[in-house]
Specification:
The complex is a heterodimer of chains A (486) and B (499). Chain A is an all-alpha fold and 486 residues long. Helices cover 75% and strands 3% of the residues of chain A. In chain A, helix 14 runs antiparallel to helix 16. A two-stranded antiparallel ribbon of chain B has the order 1-2. Chain B has two domains: 278 residues, no CATH class; 221 residues, no CATH class. By secondary structure, chain B is mostly helical. Classes of the chains: A mainly alpha (486), B mainly alpha (499).
Chain lengths: 486, 499
């Protein structure tokens, strides 16, 4: 098979897997077997694309052409490669975790859950490989719609309201801002294809460029730039595997990935010079404000959600600095944050499954009962703060270097403040878990570790977080390609 | 070959013959067979014409070999063939569906009359589209209107009669205006042939009678189009008509009226008169916007699902007339392609709603199980129906990957061509209203607890045609060679050249 074939196979595999999941719906073991097999095959397919991309090729394929001059087409470039590797690789781990979590908590409608999950992964990969804005927008919307049943999985009033906020913000921003931005790009440039150096004509007025950038940045609601971040905490009503893979990895990364794509390939770094001051400010504000909210959140998943809002804006901030080093940092942070945050969510779900605890204040002494979970949590926390030996350190290093290179002191101050804030809301959890005595209530309800699939999954992602610190070669090589002229 | 040469005549004659035959046969099965055969034959003729126009351009057919402008001319260009395709295609899908649907909604002894009226209505709509003669348009308009009044009146709910009566009054006023307009044009030009009229009108286009004719025609046709605020007949008519009738009318009747409007504006009066010398585009723009916002907004608060989507139709017609008011290549293309895209999406929705009615009638839950309380938890009882409504609803919203997105893209492109940024914002904001009413259905069907969870889908003969249209609204969002290709061709033909 050629590389182009692998793109199509990678996109089609989760769909076929979804079909298999439905057919095997009555036999849970077979159904989960289908999910795992599909995930493994998918990762293999995506890996086949790595070598050509590292060698500087961009395998491409056109699917169809719904509007004249506007094909639905795919092309794999380094950034998409990073995103696709993360989404497909973590899907395997997440599927193992899902099995433990969904069975451990006796969730209903599991076939629908696994089906929507597979479809969501397909949409995320299509976003990763999108060769133009139309394709990106198409699958961006598909991803919103296909994750809606996952967010509202519980079917309760709370889930319904969470789903409403989720849909209203993601649909609202994409229809009101992103769609006109896409159409305007087509109107002005006559193409929506992603090209190195940007596609917009050079004679656009600076004010127009600024307005268009604003439409894109706020239109990509999945990047959760304030004030359009509310959907992310609302989405936390979903089962934890959804929060872990989709709302820490696939969906939110689709957001910041789109932000990077637009800044690098639609505008072009040079063309944006001087137009991103406000974006740095807003991203900086989001980083700090979300961290402050996280500081006061007692619900663990809510704290993680606000931490995600904050960390996503690292990527936006890094991209908005426009310095080559910071852009490398942005691309790396997509990978680093994915591993760290999925570990944290896995730990939160593990605690919920084993101990039925959801609040930070209930976690006193839990580390002694669930050592694996809480050590993994600690590793994830280190990555969020940006300390070695965790992946977050590498991306933060590039981000800070980029800010130095750009001599952007505000950005530096934001990163410094955020590091302290992150330490402020993650370290107390680790401290509680290991150094505070068990409460009387907890003494009366003994429990051990969560089911083994959960423990295996979170250990793997924690190991990945550390591994990414010691061996960042592949993502680094890909990220470097972004800023080297082709 | 000779048969193919007569396709324009067969297009109208076949369904026309099927209607009296149905009455003569007086048996519902025979009537069904005859009228369905007529509709399918008409669909075949429409496909043949569409292909023929693609090969050889405009077809002019002289009825009885009387040369125009003395005889009646049937004239098929790209736009005509596209609308013929929509109308006859919808009839071919709705008729097989009708059989199971009217079983539960219309007394058995009236079934043969239903088919006869359906055949006449189809004849009228096809005739209005294909004819190149002004008075002929009026005749076919009356044929379709009168049969429509009967079809609506067949509804089981007694309010169907008053809805039909109301439509009769307003429709007759509209028809009167149209015939007055045509009369004025005949007075001034001495011809009824549209092509001939277009030539002769050039010298006298600013004369008062011509302007009066334009005004009469605009108002009269707008009534049939249900352009806001002339839409009052529509919500009740759609709500209380039998399900199959609602689906057919929603997908075709207003669309053919829009076609007639486009025909008169672009092929008779000419753009320069309609759009440059008169404030008509401004008026139409304003009314379209009002329709898009008011009707879509009212739709959100309806308690009857059929009524909800009826108001949504008024809003969607606003998009079509908005595209017209731009008087640009992209705007006209958006209008034409939305005729089709909205037709199939709304047709699908009303067909599926008919399935809900049928399943409700079978379970003995009363006549109209369409209030939101009754819809609670419907997805457990009718998963396929509910999912179909959601997908077609996504097309109404204009989600990418659906047919509605294609229309929206061109509509916004047209607004950008004009540099009207506030209009871009308005179009997008109004599509969010569509999200609101579609999601009202989603929340009722999927999240509210169901009274009972026994699976009770509509019969297959109703689900299949409906799902054909549902899949169509996905298909035509991804492969637009037929729809958008026709619309761009037609727009180019009407406006002259690309911008």
């Amino acid at each position: 098979m050629t590389a182009a074939d692998f793109i199509l196979v990678a996109l089609a595999l989760p769909l076929l897997g979804g079909l298999g999941i439905v057919l095997a719906g009555k036999q849970p073991n077979l159904r989960e077997g289908v999910t795992l097999t599909t995930a493994a095959l998918l990762f293999y397919c995506v890996l086949q694309l790595l070598d050509p991309v590292l060698a500087g090729q961009h395998p491409a394929v056109t699917l169809l052409e719904p509007l004249p001059g506007l094909p639905v087409a795919f092309s794999v470039e380094p950034l998409g490669m990073i995103f696709a590797l993360i989404a497909s690789g973590l899907w395997i781990v997440n599927s193992v975790y899902s099995i433990g979590y969904m069975r451990g908590n006796g969730e209903a409608n599991q076939t629908r859950f696994y089906l929507c999950f597979a479809l969501a992964i397909s949409a995320a990969l299509a976003i990763a490989f999108a060769a133009n804005l139309l394709t990106l927008f198409l699958f961006y919307e598909v991803l919103t719609l296909i994750t809606y049943p996952l967010v509202t999985h519980a079917g309760s009033d709370k889930a319904k309201n969470g789903g409403r906020v989720y849909l209203a913000i993601l649909m609202g921003t994409s229809v009101l801002f992103l769609l006109p931005a896409v159409i305007f790009t087509w109107h002005a440039a006559g193409t929506t294809e992603f090209r190195a150096g940007g596609i917009l004509p050079a004679d656009l007025a600076p004010a127009t460029v600024c307005l268009l950038l604003a439409l894109f940045m706020f239109g990509i609601g999945k990047a959760a730039l304030m004030p359009f971040h509310r959907w992310l905490p609302a989405a936390m009503v979903a089962p934890t595997p959804v929060s872990a893979l989709l709302h820490a990895v696939a969906v939110v990364k689709a957001g910041v990935f789109s932000v990077l794509k637009v800044i690098i390939y639609v505008f072009g770094l040079e063309a944006l010079a001087g137009a991103t001051g406000w974006l740095v400010a807003i991203a900086g504000f989001t980083i700090v404000a979300a961290s402050i909210v996280a500081l006061s959140a007692d619900n663990l998943k809510r704290r993680l959600a606000y931490s995600t809002v904050s960390q996503l804006s690292y990527v936006v901030l890094a991209a908005a600095l426009l310095a080559p080093l910071s852009v490398i940092g942005a691309a790396l942070h997509i990978a680093a944050h994915a591993f760290g945050k999925i570990t944290l969510f896995f730990a939160a779900g593990s605690i919920y499954t084993a101990a039925h605890k959801t609040e930070v204040s209930q976690l006193d002494g839990i580390g002694r009962r669930m050592p694996w979970t809480m050590v993994a949590f600690g590793v994830g926390a280190l990555s969020m703060i940006g300390l070695p030996p965790a992946a977050g350190f590498v991306s933060k290093w590039y981000l800070v270097s980029g800010a130095f290179a750009a001599q952007h002191w505000l950005a530096l101050a934001v990163v410094l403040a955020s590091t302290l804030l992150n330490a402020g809301y993650f370290l107390p959890i680790v401290y509680r878990a290991f150094f505070r005595p068990l409460s009387a209530d907890a003494e009366a309800h003994p429990h051990g570790e969560a089911p083994w699939p959960i423990v295996v999954a979170l250990s793997l992602t924690a190991a990945g977080t550390v591994a990414l610190f010691f061996f960042p070669d592949v993502p680094l090589a890909l990220a470097r390609q972004l800023v080297v002229a082709p | 070959m000779s048969l193919l040469a007569h396709a324009p005549a067969l297009q109208v004659v076949l369904p026309l013959v099927s209607a009296p035959l149905a009455v003569l046969l007086r048996h519902r099965n025979a009537a069904f067979a005859v009228v369905t055969a007529g509709a399918w034959a008409a669909f075949a003729a429409a496909i043949a014409l569409w292909l023929q126009v693609g090969e050889s351009g405009v077809i002019s057919y002289h009825i009885g070999n009387w040369a125009p402008p003395w005889g009646i001319e049937y004239r098929v260009d790209r736009l005509t063939s596209f609308v013929l395709l929509l109308v006859s295609g919808m009839a071919s899908i709705v008729l097989p569906y009708s059989r199971a649907s009217i079983e539960r909604e219309i007394p058995r002894e009236l079934h043969y009359l239903y088919y006869a009226m359906f055949g006449l209505c189809l004849t009228g709509l096809l005739g209005m589209t294909i004819t190149g003669d002004a008075f002929n348009i009026f005749v076919f308009l009356e044929i379709s209107s009168l049969s429509t009044y009967v079809l609506i009146g067949l509804g089981r709910d007694r309010r169907a009669l008053s809805a039909s009566y109301r439509y009769l009054i307003m429709g007759s006023i509209g028809a009167t205006f149209i015939v007055l307009g045509i009369g004025f044009l005949y007075l001034m030009t001495g011809t009824l042939n549209l092509a001939d009229m277009a030539v002769r009108i050039r010298d006298i286009e600013s004369s008062r009678p011509v302007l009066a004719a334009l005004a009469f025609l605009t108002v009269g046709i707008s009534l049939k189009v249900a352009l806001f605020p002339l839409h009052q007949w529509l919500p009740n008519a759609y709500t209380y008509a039998p399900s199959a009738v609602t689906a057919f009318l929603a997908a075709t009747a207003t669309k053919v009226s829009v076609y007639v409007l486009i025909r008169f504006y672009f092929s008779v009066f000419g753009e320069s008169l309609v759009f440059a010398k008169l404030p008509l585009p401004e008026i139409m723009l304003l009314l379209s916007l009002l329709g898009m916002f008011a009707a879509n907004f009212i739709a959100i608060f309806q308690d009857n699902l059929k009524r909800l989507f009826a108001y949504s139709s008024v809003g969607q017609i606003g998009y079509i007339t908005l595209g017209l008011s731009f008087d640009s290549f992209n705007g006209l293309a958006a209008s034409i392609v939305h005729l089709f895209n909205h037709g199939i999406a709304k047709g699908a929705i009303f067909l599926l709603i008919g399935g809900i009615v049928a399943a409700g009638a079978k379970a003995g839950t009363g006549p109209l199980p369409l209030s939101f309380d009754r819809l609670a938890g419907l997805s457990r009882r009718m998963p396929l129906t509910c999912f179909g409504i959601v997908i077609a609803g996504l097309s109404l919203i204009g989600v990418p990957g659906t047919a509605g997105f294609v229309s929206k893209w061109y509509l916004i492109l047209a607004a950008m061509d004009k540099g009207q940024w506030w209009l871009v914002a308005a179009i997008l904001a109004s599509s969010l209203l569509a999200v609101a009413y579609v999601w009202r259905f989603v929340e009722a069907a999927y999240f509210r607890p169901a009274a009972d969870e026994v699976r009770r889908e509509a019969p297959l003969s109703m689900l299949l045609p409906a799902w054909l249209l549902v899949l169509g609204s996905i298909w035509f969002g991804l492969d637009t060679s037929v729809t958008l290709g026709s619309a761009l061709d037609a727009a180019q033909h009407l406006i002259g050249s690309k911008p």
